[in-house]
Task: inverse folding
């Protein structure tokens, strides 16, 4: 057995001061960190108790609470804009699907039923449109789920699309895909009407994210 | 080479015999010689047993090396295939005669999301770990980690590449 490499951990980095604080250092997965909209809580995935579960860390007290655990994979937490519920990916039904956890009542509800793979949800500021990775006919596309009508609309037609991120104004979705064996970024309008690739000169690019609206 | 139960038993028996001879009341030269002969026989038996155990352990290790240290999985599955079980069994046999530790590294193909694949890679590694533990390997000897889809061995898309990347590596 070769020597241990440093294990993954979650850090909080202050961009203004450059200060870095380690938040977790548990055995197993330490991943998928997601700030709550008010900035006081971090949702994350830890597998310290066996299977990956979603935890909420109070960033002041560093206290962890776990959302009801399940032996399946629970991962990719994403906050609703009001901070009252979380979306997450779970394969508790056999295949990965999107679920919603209500922080107040503790209720867990399955949201996606179309397709054998729906994962990594991201919610628009309106709290209605959800973008996610959706498998259809063996291909991975970006799809939009309308939480009011419960309709799923596939937005992209390329093959290995992932990491969708919805613009603060709700109009465009950035995502990562593969083109000519390279990781590139592309964008599509939320109605699926406009699609374009973002130029990337070299190397692989992935995991795009929008900067937030600046209030000052 | 720490555990040699057969050799250990033989030594115990022979040393007891030597001790009985040595303590049998008389200290005549003849009995001393008998004791020395018994001790020599014990030492030689010990060496022979140790050599035999070493050879057996080497055979098991060679068998494990021959099947390789990579176990493959079906798409989005962490269930051990019959081929994977055969391969893991060979490693279990080798580990039972040694005191070395192992690390199990779980991997996935590029399809699906990165975080889900991190979890899937971990579940694959744990699936091998649980099978080893169920077959007598102590949990503390096994460490499992996941690299998700981040460390493919075969680049490019298509099942011929993906099937190579859905794996657990034993190190």
Result:
């Amino acid at each position: 057995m070769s020597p241990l490499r440093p294990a993954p951990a979650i850090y909080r980095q202050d961009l203004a001061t450059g200060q870095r604080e380690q938040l977790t250092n548990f055995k197993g997965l330490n991943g998928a960190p997601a700030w709550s909209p008010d900035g006081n809580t971090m949702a994350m995935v830890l597998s310290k108790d066996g299977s990956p579960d979603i935890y909420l860390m109070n960033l002041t007290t560093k206290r962890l609470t776990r959302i009801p655990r399940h032996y399946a994979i629970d991962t990719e937490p994403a906050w609703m804009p009001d901070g009252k519920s979380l979306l997450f990916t779970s394969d508790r039904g056999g295949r990965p699907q999107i679920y919603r956890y209500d922080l107040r009542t503790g209720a867990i509800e399955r949201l996606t039923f179309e397709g054998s793979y729906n994962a990594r949800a991201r919610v628009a500021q309106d709290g209605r449109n959800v973008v996610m990775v959706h498998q259809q006919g063996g291909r991975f596309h970006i799809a939009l789920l309308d939480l009011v009508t419960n309709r799923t609309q596939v937005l992209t037609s390329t093959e290995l699309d992932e990491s969708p991120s919805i613009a603060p104004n709700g109009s465009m979705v950035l995502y990562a895909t593969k083109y000519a064996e390279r990781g590139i970024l592309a964008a599509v309008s939320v109605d699926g009407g406009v699609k374009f690739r973002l130029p990337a000169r070299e190397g692989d690019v992935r995991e795009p994210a929008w900067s937030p609206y600046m209030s000052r | 080479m720490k555990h040699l139960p057969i050799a250990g038993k033989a030594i115990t028996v022979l040393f007891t015999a030597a001790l009985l001879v040595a303590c049998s009341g008389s200290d005549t030269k003849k009995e001393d010689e008998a004791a020395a002969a018994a001790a020599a026989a014990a030492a030689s038996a010990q060496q022979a047993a140790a050599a035999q155990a070493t050879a057996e352990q080497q055979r098991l290790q060679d068998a494990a090396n021959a099947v390789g240290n990579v176990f493959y999985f079906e798409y989005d599955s962490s269930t051990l295939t019959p081929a994977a079980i055969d391969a893991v069994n060979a490693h279990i046999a080798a580990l039972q005669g040694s005191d070395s530790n192992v690390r199990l590294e779980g991997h996935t193909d590029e399809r699906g999301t990165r975080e889900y694949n991190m979890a899937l890679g971990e579940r694959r590694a744990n699936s091998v770990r649980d099978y080893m533990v169920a077959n007598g390997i102590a949990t503390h000897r096994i460490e499992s980690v996941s690299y998700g889809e981040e460390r493919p061995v075969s680049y490019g898309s298509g099942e011929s590449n993906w099937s190579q990347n859905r794996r657990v590596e034993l190190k």
The helical segments of chain B are 5-22, 29-67, 82-96, 114-134, 159-165.
